[in-house]
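Q: I'm building a small set of examples for a reading group on sequence design. Run inverse folding on the following structure and report the sequence directly after it, with nothing in between.
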């Protein structure tokens, strides 16, 4: 039992009473027709787009955020909605805070988007990833089961579940063969959602979303790393782009199209699981080529591949079939691959141009560390290999050299 889970049952009794009183108040008067949604991970890429969609539909939107020493609301600021959502501090590892968040927000719908979502990092932090991405969803399912089974639950499941599957395109019935600690944790959540749905009749659904990107994407993900670097290279702020496996294929769509699918899933008469994808797959190299050619540059002059950016195990190809979602609620992607690349490169180019002109605005890139300064397992492993080749230096000395910051590439 971690972080207050042992006191869960005691807490639930007191919260259930508070919740009933709150719910009673909330069902009187005008609040009766205003839907309430709780979004976890509101500071990430998808959270703000979903919040914007729900606000436009007249929802009262609550969002959870983690207490951190430096506030991280730049995406909500960019969309101009930071003052239109109600923020609640909560961590997916902390059951008590999740219970508080549900009690305070009294939601009709919970969208569980929070996660340690970076696949590469899940190899460095497998236990944390498991706690947050596997048990996080179960914590919510338990809260709903004890508090109010009418609350609808959306789980951010992922195409990474298909991992090593060779079926193409992948759909709801394709074998799930996770290839990372991240995917294994998400597979646990995927099944828990199904199990709670079937055992307790709860409205709990999985959105099996393929990669979706936007100008609000985190800089550690490959598409945004590319768009940001292309903009900087074009403006003379950077000379090269260092990448790992450029022969991986992904089915990339546009995040606002995908959050719309999340909402549609939650409005279905019956809870179910749906694949959301474009049905087209492109390699990282194709994304790179398209991004550089959009600004009139030849990618081969700037791109360097670096073994240290390869994952211990990667997913070779993802390509999804959204047929079930199209048949159930008419969902189709609106933005094409080429349009997506253009939207992302143009957005980063505009940001850096404004930055050069001395303008300051909410945005992540200027504060982002150089990737090679982050001592992930791969960088240390590489230092160990180097040290082994040079007998004059011991492995320990070489690692110390890396830790002292002399190992930049
Ligand atoms: P993201 O940009 O990485 O955002 C993740 C969010 O989760 C952030 O708000 C983060 O907060 C929060 N978070 C992380 N650890 C947490 C914890 N312990 N407690 C509470 N909050 C925590 O991810 P995204 O692209 O928006 O994706 C949303 C969800 O969809 C994720 O679950 C992801 O795994 C899943 N998914 C994404 C894609 C995709 O292509 N984008 C595809 C399939 C599935 P901080 O801002 O404080 O870090
Ligand atoms: N991040 C990153 N950085 N990836 C690189 C790089 C690099 O420098 N070079 C090559 N790649 C390759 C990765 O090895 C991977 O095969 C592919 O580019 C995409 O990597 P990411 O953009 O990090 O995304 P992801 O596919 O691993 O995961 C994203 O999509 C999943 C859905 O399929 C995340 O959003 C997950 O949270 C999500 O579940």
């Amino acid at each position: 039992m971690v972080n207050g889970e042992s006191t869960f049952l005691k807490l639930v009794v007191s919260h259930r009473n508070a919740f009933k009183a709150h719910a009673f108040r909330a069902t009187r008067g005008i609040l009766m027709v205003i839907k309430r949604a709780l979004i976890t991970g509101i500071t990430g890429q998808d959270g703000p787009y979903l919040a914007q969609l729900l606000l436009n539909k007249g929802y009262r939107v609550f969002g959870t955020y983690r207490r951190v020493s430096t506030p991280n609301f730049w995406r909500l600021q960019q969309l101009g909605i930071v003052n239109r959502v109600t923020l609640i501090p909560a961590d997916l590892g902390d059951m008590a805070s999740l219970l508080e968040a549900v009690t305070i927000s009294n939601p009709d719908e919970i969208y569980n988007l929070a996660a340690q979502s970076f696949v590469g990092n899940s190899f460095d932090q497998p236990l944390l990833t498991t706690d947050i991405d596997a048990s996080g969803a179960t914590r919510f399912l338990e809260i709903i089961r004890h508090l109010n089974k009418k609350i609808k639950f959306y789980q951010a499941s992922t195409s990474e579940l298909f991992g090593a599957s060779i079926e193409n395109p992948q759909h709801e019935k394709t074998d799930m063969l996770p290839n990372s600690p991240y995917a294994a944790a998400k597979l646990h959540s995927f099944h828990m959602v199904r199990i709670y749905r079937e055992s307790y009749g709860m409205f709990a659904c999985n959105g099996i979303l393929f990669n979706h990107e936007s100008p609000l994407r985190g800089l550690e993900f490959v598409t945004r790393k590319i768009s940001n670097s292309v903009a900087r290279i074009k403006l003379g702020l950077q000379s090269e782009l260092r990448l790992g496996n450029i022969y991986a294929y992904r089915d990339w769509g546009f995040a606002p199209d995908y959050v719309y699918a999340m909402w549609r899933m939650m409005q279905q008469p019956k809870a179910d699981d749906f694949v959301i994808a474009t049905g087209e797959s492109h390699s990282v190299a194709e994304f790179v080529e398209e991004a550089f050619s959009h600004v009139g540059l030849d990618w081969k002059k700037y791109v360097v591949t670096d073994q240290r950016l390869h994952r211990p195990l990667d997913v070779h190809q993802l390509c999804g079939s959204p047929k079930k979602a199209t048949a159930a609620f008419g969902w189709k992607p609106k933005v094409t691959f080429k349009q997506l690349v253009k939207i992302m490169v143009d957005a980063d180019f505009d940001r850096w141009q404004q930055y050069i002109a001395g303008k300051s605005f909410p945005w992540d890139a200027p504060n982002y560390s150089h990737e090679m300064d982050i001592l992930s397992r791969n960088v240390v492993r590489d230092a160990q290999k180097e040290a082994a080749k040079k007998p004059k230096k011991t492995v320990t000395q070489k690692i110390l050299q890396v830790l002292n910051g002399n190992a930049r590439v």
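The pocket of guanosine-5'-diphosphate-alpha-D-mannose (ligand 2) is lined by residues 117, 119-120, 158-160, 210-211, 220-223, 225, 243-246, 248, 250, 284, 309, 311, 314, 318 (CB under 6 Å).
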